[in-house]
Amino acid sequence: MIVILWIILVILILILTSRLAKLLFGFDYYLGFLIMIRTTKFIKYLDTLARAKKLLVILADIGIVLGFGAFGFDYLIKDKVKNRFYRFLIFIGVAFILTIITYFSTYSLLTNNPLISSGFMIFMVIFTGIMGLSGFTMGSLVFSAFDIISKLFMGTAGSACPGVGLVIPGVKMPKMDFFIPWYGWLILIASAIIHEFAHGALLRTIKVKIKSMGFILAAILPLGAFVEPNDKDLWKHKKKSIVRMYSAGPTSNTLIALVFLVIALLISPPILSYTKSIDAQRDLDIFVHSVESTTEVCGSVYDSPAYGVLDENDLIISVNGINIDSRQDLTSASKLDQNNLFVLKNKETGIEREVNLKPNEMGRFGFTSGVKEDPNFVIPGKYKFYKHTLAVIVWIAILNLLIATVNFLPTVPFDGGAMSQIIFSGYLKKKRKEEKRMRLVQRFFGTIIVILLLLNIIPYFF
Description:
The protein folds into two domains: about 40-205 and about 235-265 and about 390-460, no CATH class; about 285-390, Pdz3 Domain (Roll). Helices cover about 55% and strands about 15% of the residues. It contains 13 helices and twelve strands. It has helices at about 1-25, 45-50, 55-75, 85-105, 105-110, 120-155, 185-205, 230-235, 240-280, 325-335, 380-405, 415-425, 435-455, and strands at about 30, 35-40, 210-220, 220-230, 285-290, 295, 300-305, 315-320, 320-325, 340-345, 350-355, 365-375. A four-stranded antiparallel β-sheet has the order 1-2-3-4. Strands 9-8-10-11 form a four-stranded antiparallel β-sheet, covered by helices on one side. Strands 5-12 form a two-stranded antiparallel sheet. It is globular.
């Protein structure tokens, strides 16, 4: 309840600052509490980007499939493949291919998590194949809602993990083991600007007039950017061009995420090798800092294999025959799917002993490690530079993927809301006018997502 009160207080402060900004500087506000600063200075750069029209269209089409899976692909080919049976076969084939891709790309995430049953894993990968990233995000909300409801009936909803939360860099999210460093603000702002520039470039490829561009602030904190087209001019164009325009934003974020993920994979081996060598020189002893009686993850309690077996301050000599000289050694030497042979030394008696530990279902041993560092060791400057550089690259990939998946959700105010209305209205009977069909699609997905979001915030009230 305290969390809810804080959220209400923050919103009230934002409402007050937005009104003051309107009164003092003439700035407009959005949603009642966000400040909008408009300008026309950057529109000329959109025309420069729009020259690469063919490339932009190809990327936007890829984004349509990425965001809406087999349905997205079917939308792109519906004007070329008139035979419904052939379209159906293509739909099944694309859904199957995307399902396989999803399975292998999310294998470690879904199969190594005991909270996710095999049945639900199958549902997630198939639903993603059919609905793309919008389906993956909705499926994740369904899973989280199911977990929260089941724990609500068991009386442990207060310890369940909420499925959604405010992403505030530098602030630990309540009830969630998720923390974004302060420089996440810079990443989010830059990603939002690129996102909106992508929308703007696609608008200019079809000659839609841009009334203004600008930035959105929460009080003095920049949240993102926006492009404001002439709506009447926009909806005069073909619906496929409009879908491409909405697709461009989250597609640009997905592309950024993939590029930086590849960069991280390429540079992480030499960086980790270097930092490991420095840690081995700096760290004198790795020891057992604390032992838990049980391990708890989102309200689910598991046995702690280390309880009653390891003692606090035990020195960790080796694991599976590998000498432990740093925390990185402990992480790399430990096997999460089999028994591990630990060689430990009692700090007081100096007696060594061997113990076998197999992680629990969550892949945890149930103890935390500590490190005794050499106070005389001077850490090289490039050690911190390399570690921070790798961390920044990884966070760029994570946050851009997060922006993309959320924006593909098939409801307003996300990009996927307008996309879904156009894509799915084509499957409804043509007896109704297109506007009515689009409203039906919006109500359908909007109702489902609102219900899922409400269910996912239940833990905040306990």
